[in-house]
Design goal:
Chain A: It comes from Pelagomonas calceolata. Chain A: This is Dynein light chain roadblock. Chain A: It is found in: Cytoplasm, Cytoskeleton. The complex is a heterodimer of chains A (about 100) and B (about 575). With about 100 residues, chain A is of the alpha+beta class. Chain A has 2 helices and 5 strands; from the N terminus they run αββαβββ. In chain A, a hairpin with a 3-residue loop joins β4 and β5. Chain B is extended. By secondary structure, chain B is of the alpha+beta class. Chain B contains 4 helices and 28 strands. The chains are: A alpha+beta (about 100), B alpha+beta (about 575). The interface of A and B includes residues 12, 68 and 84 of A.
Chain lengths: ~100, ~575
């Protein structure tokens, strides 16, 4: 089963323009990352907060609803976050020129 | 009828509290109805009364207290770890992660999340869903009337109001401005105050309440500039002539400062970072007539010095404004207190120290030049602001190629737009910013914006977007304004049109110069011809003089003879 996770991550990393893949627990603890420590910490701290906030927003708007996914587009990157009640899968992809 | 009631109170009851109690109604006195005064009744005629159909209103004014907000933040970097795990201990972290990865929940969740992300990434790689469909489409803003709106006001927090003498935008984007504050008035009464504040400030444009950082020079700063190569460092010139260097990463105190003996002897009116390998070189001008070059690592003495004079034995001119553009790295243009423009080319030091003096007659300003600025797109051309006009010059020509009409108030500063080739801004003594748009018309101001009641002193346009304009006044207030798109977005073929216009004016000025030279030559020639006749005239005059002398002598002889005759006659008698 663990190998399947590895496989998934490997597949994600093989995509074009992927700069980083992070797995963060809901508390903001980085579990896996292929970025350096500083960046990992920053991403984990900031995005776990944002994910909590986004989840709250969706919940308040409709309490039957649930946040499924969000992406942040910036001039340089796109940060994609797939949330789960306990974990976050974060992928940072560089923009295609 | 006497209504009197004797009220007595015992001394011991003074000051006692009153006890009220219920009582039956009592009639103390009645006045019966009477006809006695009926005859005295006179109806008033006419009776005046006023009515008003409008409801009455009253006006009342209050002003709420100014709420000063302060932005603060905390950074939460490492967190969420369980109590027994120390995040600084790599072994603990490793163990925790291993455990987490072994969790079944984790595996299942990751498997579920994987495809969601994959889908988006594949989508991103296949199509650009954020593609700009209408890229390259020039919107024509020219039909829009020019406008500007105030965004924020930055007030000097000190009690004593000083002039905002210079404003410099952060080179990497419109996020911060460096403003220098000092008093330039001669013997201003504020100088007698022993506690004249020296601070100058860096402001964050999003926070007008408190300065981002304060700089504490030894004497108030007259000019202040960010280093374009390392944006945390600044150089400033003080009122007493010192040049000082700051590093915002360290503190607001000068990291390096020049010494009085080897600095300027007058306020440093402008300083610029110049292109050099190390990015540490800067140049400064002052009204003491010197231009000095410095290395900010060692400000002990200037690297180079130059006296601003019109010729070898000519007058020394006090530099009051300077511009340096990195695209023309060897040529400095300097505006002087005397209104004369100088160009300094260090490559050409043999000829009058490399100083080229521009027109000293009709072309010069009638007063000090307060601002000099190269056009950002056509760097051969520059603008000077002084007296009531702004003039546009071409580097190679001695006379200005274009001059604005005389404004109704003194101009105090000005700058070109950093994005539009034909637009420049000038500030006036009556608190107005005038915007000239040469692409639209050259004879009239395109747009006038009143900033405040007091005289303006400095202006700067941000280098990246060209939309933000900061205007400083003599009270130390800096107003941040945003100009509309039509004044900031380059118009279709504006660059070439303005280039052509400036070239045309240059050609005209050149032709005029040529014609003047021809005329002068013709005059000289004519003078040469009249020179011959003058000789004749001189000869004539000499002949005349001789004749006169002869007549004079004759007359004297005659008188003498007559006297002699008389004398002999008298003797005979």
């Amino acid at each position: 089963m663990s190998s399947e996770v590895e496989e998934t991550l490997k597949r994600i990393q093989s995509h074009r323009g992927v700069k980083g893949v992070l797995i963060v627990s809901a508390d903001g603890v980085p579990i896996r990352s292929n970025l350096d420590d500083d960046e990992t910490q920053t991403y984990a701290a900031l995005l776990s907060q944002l994910a909590t906030k986004a989840r709250n927003v969706v919940r308040v708007l409709d309490d039957q609803d649930e946040l499924a996914f969000f992406r942040i587009r910036s001039n340089k990157h796109e940060i994609m976050v797939a949330p789960d009640p306990e974990y976050l899968l974060i992928v940072v992809q560089e923009n295609v020129k | 009828m006497e209504v009197a009631y004797l009220y007595t109170k015992v001394r011991s009851e003074f000051g006692k509290q009153t006890n009220f109690s219920d009582q039956d109604t009592r009639i103390l006195h009645t006045i019966p109805q009477t006809d006695e005064f009926e005859d005295d009744y006179i109806p008033r005629n006419p009776v005046c009364t006023t009515v008003d159909t409008c409801p009455t209103y009253s006006e009342h004014e209050t002003n709420t207290d100014r709420l000063v907000t302060k932005a603060s933040s905390i950074r939460h970097a490492e967190g969420g770890w369980p109590k027994d795990v120390d995040p600084t201990e790599p072994a603990d972290v490793q163990r925790y992660r291993k455990k987490a990865e072994k969790d079944d929940d984790y595996k299942a969740n990751m498997k579920a999340l994987g495809p969601i992300i994959s889908r988006c990434m594949r989508q991103n790689n296949t199509i650009d869903i954020y593609e700009e469909y209408f890229a390259g489409e020039d919107r024509d803003w020219s039909s829009e009337p020019p406008s500007a709106k105030g965004l924020a006001v930055f007030r000097d927090p000190n009690e004593i109001k000083r002039t905002a003498t210079s404003i410099n935008w952060h080179p990497e984007g419109p996020t911060k401005i460096a403003v220098s504050y000092s008093i330039l008035n001669f013997q201003d009464p504020k100088f007698s105050n022993a506690r004249l504040p020296v601070e100058s400030y860096i402001w964050d444009v999003t926070n007008p309440n408190t300065p981002d950082q304060a700089l504490t020079p030894p004497s108030p700063l007259c000019c202040l500039r960010f280093n374009p190569k390392s944006t945390d460092t600044l150089v400033g010139g003080s009122y007493n002539g010192l040049v000082s260097f700051y590093d915002l990463r360290k503190s607001g105190a000068p990291q390096e400062c020049s010494v009085i003996e080897k600095s300027h002897h007058d306020p440093v009116y402008d300083c610029f970072w110049i292109s050099s390998k190390t990015g540490n070189q800067c140049a400064s001008v002052s009204t003491d007539g010197n231009m000095l070059w410095w290395d900010t690592r060692r400000l002990g003495e200037p690297v180079d010095a130059l006296q601003l004079s019109t010729g070898k034995d000519g007058a020394v001119l006090g530099g009051s404004a300077m511009d340096y553009h990195k695209e023309v790295p060897t040529k400095y243009v300097v505006g002087t207190e005397q209104g004369i423009v100088l160009a300094i080319n260090l490559r050409n030091r043999k000829q009058n120290n490399g100083i080229a003096v521009y027109d000293q007659n009709h072309g010069k300003h009638h007063g000090p030049i307060y601002a000099i600025h190269r056009n950002q797109t056509h760097t051969k051309f520059f603008m000077t602001v002084g007296d009531w006009t702004a003039r546009v010059w071409m580097e190679d020509l001695k006379t200005p190629i274009m001059t604005t009409k005389y404004h109704s108030a003194y101009l105090t500063s000005g700058c070109w737009s950093s994005t539009r080739a034909g637009v420049f801004f000038v500030t006036r003594m009556d608190g107005i910013v005038d915007v000239w748009d040469y692409f639209y018309r050259q004879n009239e101001v395109a747009y006038t914006h009143k900033v405040g009641d007091c005289a303006l002193s400095s202006i700067a346009n941000d280098a990246t977007t060209g939309r933000l304009l900061s205007v400083g006044d003599v009270e130390g207030t800096v107003a941040l304004m945003e100009v509309c798109d039509s004044l900031a977005t380059p118009q279709h073929n504006e660059k070439s049109a303005i280039g052509a216009m400036l070239e045309r004016e240059t050609k005209q000025e050149k032709n005029l110069e040529l014609r003047e030279r021809d005329l002068r030559r013709a005059r000289d020639k004519a003078k040469g011809e009249t020179g011959e006749t003058e000789e004749e005239k001189e000869a004539k005059a000499q002949a005349m003089e001789e004749q006169l002398r002869a007549v004079d002598a004759d007359f004297l002889n005659m008188i003498k003879e007559a006297e002699d005759d008389e004398a002999t006659a008298a003797a005979e008698e």
